[in-house]
Amino acid sequence: APAIRLEDYxxxxxxxxxxxxxxxxxxxxxxxxxxxxxxRLTDTLPxxxxxxxxGGLELTSLSVNGVAIPVESxxxxxxxxxxxxxxxxxxxxxxxxxxxxxANTQLEGLYRSSGTYCTQCEAEGFRRITYFLDRxxxxxxxxxxxEARKSEAPxxxxxxxxxxxxxxxxxxxxxxxxxxxxxPKPSYLFAMVAGDLAHVADxxxxxxxxxxxxxxxxxxxxxxxxxxxxxxxxxSMRWDEEVFGCEYDLDVFNIxxxxxxxxxxxxxxxxxxxxxxxxxxxxxxxxxxxxxNIEAVIAHEYFHNWTGNRITCxxxxxxxxxxxxxxxxxxxxxxxxxxxxxxxxxxxRLLKSHQFPEDAGPxxxxxxxxxxxxxxxxxxxxxxxxxxEVVRMLKTLVGADGFKAGTDLYFQRHDGExxxxxxxxxxxxxxxxxxxxHFALWYEQAGTPLVEVESSYDATAQSLTLQISQEIxxxxxQADSKPAVIPIRFGLIGSDGADMSFDKVxxxxxxxxxxxxxQRRQTVRFSGVSERPALSLLRGFxxxxxxxxxxxxxxxxxxxxxxxxxxxxxxxxxxxxxxxLLRLVRAAEAGEELVADSVVLDVFGSILSDxxxxxxxxALSLQLPGxxxxxxxxxxxxxxxxxxxxxxxxxxxxxxxxxxxxxxALSQRESGPFDPGAEAAGKRALANQALAYFAASDAxxxxxxxxxxxxxxxxxxxxxxxxxxxxxxxxxxxxxxLEAFRNRHETSSLALDKWFMVQATAPLSSTLETVRDLxxxxxxxxxxxxxxxxxxxxxxxxxPSQFGRPDGAGFSFVAxxxxxxxxxxxxxxxxxxxxxxxxxxYEAQRSSHAEAALQRISEAENLSRDSRDIVDRCLx
Length: 876
Ligand code: BAL
Ligand code: ZN
What we know:
Layout: E1 4-5, E2 14-24, E3 30-40, E4 50-53, E5 58-64, E6 67-68, E7 74-77, E8 80-83, E9 91-99, E10 109-113, E11 116-120, E12 140-149, E13 155-158, E14 161-168, E15 171-185, E16 192-195, E17 198-205, E18 211-218, H1 227-244, E19 252-258, E20 265-266, E21 271-275, H2 288-303, E22 312-313, H3 319-337, H4 340-359, E23 371-372, H5 381-414, E24 418-419, H6 421-432, H7 441-444, E25 450-458, E26 463-471, E27 486-493, E28 504-506, E29 509-511, E30 514-517, E31 521-527, E32 534-537, E33 546-548, H8 553-562, H9 566-589, H10 598-609, H11 615-622, H12 627-634, H13 640-657, H14 659-667, H15 678-696, H16 702-712, H17 716-728, H18 734-744, H19 749-760, H20 767-775, H21 785-798, H22 800-803, H23 809-822, H24 826-833, H25 844-859, H26 865-875
Helix pairs in contact: 1-2, 2-3, 3-4, 3-5, 4-5, 4-9, 5-6, 8-9, 8-10, 9-10, 9-11, 9-13, 11-15, 12-13, 13-15, 14-15, 15-16, 15-17, 16-17, 19-21, 21-23, 23-24, 23-25, 24-26, 25-26
The structure holds beta-alanine and zinc ion.
């Protein structure tokens, strides 16, 4: 497929101003009638052909201004409809198409999930419903009439506000509903749902007094799992008014949860459709992480109403315009709902584990890509998470007030438009008076800058000198990099643990506590520094960079105890653990004895016993870097078995060294009624982290205590934590616990996903066999994306030592699944395929096996455009 390039953007020659859709639903033959009001743009020559996008469509009728048009005046294929000489005056084009929702396994366009008709149109699914200018810069007002058998689909939902509904004359078994959305929108925000659904209802009054009916629709019997989602929605609506000044703009806001969904959720105007994983929660089936995710995703989709829907993207290259900004907004929301420090640490962990490897390998791309062959492959951690980091840096640079003024201007100036990153940045440049042209490089350049800092202190001159450089390693299509604007928040910590003052700084701009780098190499000199400070750099992770600032273990331990910035306190303990683990990896590779460093054991002991710290923060600080994090640090010639051994050795040493402290922490586990809030969740996280180390220790009663927690747990967080320790540690009782878990949750598919996932991520040599068996289990469903993700994807991304088995069998297994899946659901297949992206970092034997698996995929016939794109880039 030819690449689509940003530089080739031009507006469509025609626009579609209004859409009246009539959808006659039937499982195998849904009839769609679209009446499009089309206008030629003034720059378009009369007679210019009109080319509409299609996707596997069957045309059943076609007329212009009410008159069927002769066959010689158009050409049609399932993927394209071309009017050779359309009227030069505004006209109405009526198109009939027939589609088969039941046959739609790719879950784009109109499909059925557990019998419910639903749609997914972003990015290019609307063209699978009718022929259209299916691009985000064509904004139309939609009216949708939905008609279905009343018994099959008593609930009929569309975008916007409900207008009318009732029985269909002369067809007693059918009924209809009409929905009208007054806000012009791109086709990717179209949605429709029809099915036999239950709902919960609530309401919200906006700050200007608009009453909004809120409803969450779910399968019957799941109504009692919607409370948290509804509560999150109301909090999101209020927060967006208070913090961003954004008010809701329709009479209803509907959310529908479906069980077959490619993405997490979708922000269709007034009718969000969700993967049910991000809606349904109760004590028995959802973990604390699930609760936090639901809160964040509900907020994210709601926030899109302004950042995405009212102001949308001119073209798909601008995807980060809505996604990066909206992720930033949902992160801020969660920070306000929970602990800001804990949220920041969690977000940075996610960024480093998902985005950094993407940015360092063959799939690296700028936050705003310049070309794509399949846009579905650009819903990436780079566009989303790095995109959010870029917005965060923008806020740091222009300040909180400048940021507020900039977003106010953006909302006011671009409301109702499809726009660009340039237009977005211009708002902030204008209100702050800052030139942001150099900063804009963050949108253009791929790769994670490596910032190296060497410091020297001169006691006589009382000065501190930093030699700073920044560099991005060469990437495919990006041999050289340019230096970026990098805001480095910092502090100089004195021996008393407090931040020190200094007189002046030369060699870089400093604004408050922020050093602003802009050159490849800079020498920065602080004067008036009264003693050698401990240097705390990149506080709050103020820029998405890799920081190398050599620091002794003792200095890291000092900062882990004293840094006034909680993020850097956490980072100091992580860096310390990482350095220690990397030494253990080298020892494991050399076949030496693995002896843990005492300074790490001490620091972890202090955190464990420091009751003054927030439990959630302590839990995070006690977590070791993951196997994949260590592999990323090692960078090349990675042997995941050595990494696993090193990590296991340190876990065991931590457990055995601190057995008494751990026992004490375990005894503090709280009982009482379940509370899903952040504070109670933090206590559970700490208790379960302590349990994990205890399970890794040489305590003779470790297995007993874990089994006991599994049996007694009254919530999913604790039950799953115990099950994971039993299964991953191959402890006595593991098989019985797996069976008990499956029996208990046989009818909850989200809980069963966890049952598959625990087994898929066990770092055991038997796991591949287990996973193979599970892929043939009666409860496995290869058509359900969540189930595939919980087994195959979890194995490929959450089990580095077994996916990366030295015999290549892990790679081969995943490749088989990519190929099988590709024919049914290319989007999910291509996403699974991205787990190979770091294949060149393995040691030689493993990387040759991984390459062979990729070659086999590449040579398959009829590979989808989605998978072709990923495999080609991985092998390039
Ligand atoms: N727009 C796709 C799903 C999301 O990012 O909200
Ligand atoms: Zn989004």
